[in-house]
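Summary of Year 1 activities. Much of the first year was spent building the evaluation harness for sequence design. The harness presents a backbone, in tokenized form, and records the residue chosen at every position. We chose the following record to illustrate the format because it has been used consistently in internal testing since the harness was completed.
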């Protein structure tokens, strides 16, 4: 429709695809009225069997230009040399993956956070986040070698990590409750080192259970045991 802003996005699920589309609309139109956004599901995606036949969910999000309060973008903040190098590295990696996105770098005392924003982040995220975890590992290794010390670099795509963290914490809580009720240890499905850390941290202060990692990569997994 004339006057509408339209974006297409993908994700592992329809919900993730809608989230990515909404983030892109918010980038284009600061002050966006989210209640005015209309979604059309193009495909619901396929998980496939044993990694074969995977296809992302695809949605189109539309909103009238008048539904946003136009505000000037914030003034650019000067980057450190390290932040600029991280930006260049991520731009090179995303180009190599044929992913069109905007790379935003945020630096503070805790480290560096990189947000990759675009309409099609499925290729960068990968199946269950395997690709983006590999990219993050590579970037951290390069930065550590350059700086001579470990500086935490988090690489995200369209808010994937926050959504995945919330899902893992819910899984950890439910699994710990089962362990407390049964008194028996419970093995979770294999996870990346990044995801295992989320589970360990989430349960570290929960009385009555303890966590450990067992197995060999790439099939290493978390075990939740009663104390």
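For this record, the design step produced the sequence shown next.
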């Amino acid at each position: 429709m004339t006057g509408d802003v339209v974006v297409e996005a993908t994700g592992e699920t329809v919900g993730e695809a809608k989230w990515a589309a909404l983030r892109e609309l918010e980038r284009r139109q600061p002050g966006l009225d989210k209640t005015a956004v209309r979604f059309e599901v193009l495909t619901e995606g396929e998980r496939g069997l044993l990694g074969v036949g995977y296809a992302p969910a695809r949605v189109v999000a539309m909103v009238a230009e008048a539904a946003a309060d136009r505000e000037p973008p914030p003034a650019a903040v000067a980057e450190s040399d390290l932040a600029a190098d991280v930006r260049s590295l991520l731009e090179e990696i995303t180009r190599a993956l044929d992913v069109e996105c905007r790379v935003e770098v945020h630096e503070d005392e805790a480290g560096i956070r990189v947000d990759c924003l675009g309409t099609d982040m499925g290729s960068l995220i990968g199946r269950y986040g395997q690709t983006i975890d590999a990219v993050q590992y590579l970037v951290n290794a390069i930065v550590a070698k350059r700086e001579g010390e470990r500086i935490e670099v988090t690489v995200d795509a369209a808010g994937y990590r926050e959504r995945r963290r919330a899902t893992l914490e819910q899984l950890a809580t439910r699994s710990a409750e089962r362990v407390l009720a049964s008194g028996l240890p419970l093995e979770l499905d294999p996870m990346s080192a990044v995801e295992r850390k989320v589970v360990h941290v989430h349960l570290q202060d929960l009385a009555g259970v303890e966590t450990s990692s067992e197995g060999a990569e790439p099939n290493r997994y978390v075990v939740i045991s009663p104390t």
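The beta strands are 4-11, 38-43, 57-64, 102-108, 111-117, 153-157, 186-187, 209-214, 221-226. Quantitative recovery figures across the full test set are reported in Table 2.
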